[in-house]
Amino acid sequence: MPTAPTLWPVMRFAGAAHATYYNHIANPARECCGDTTEQTMSHSADFDCLRIERPSPQICVLELHRPESRNALSWQLMRELKSALLNIDQDNRCRVVILRGAGKSFCAGLDLFDQNNPDSLRATLGELKPGSRSGMRAQEFMADIALLMRRIQQPIIAAVQGHAYGGGLALALACDLRMAADSARFCTQFIRLGISGCDFGVSYTLPRLIGASRAHDMMLTARLVDADQAEHWGLVSRRVSDDALHSESLALAESLCEFSPYGLISTKQAMWENLNANSLQQAIQLENRNQILNGLSGDVEEAAAAFFEKRKPRFE
Question: What's the pTM value of the predicted model, to 2 decimals?
Answer without folding.
Answer: 0.83
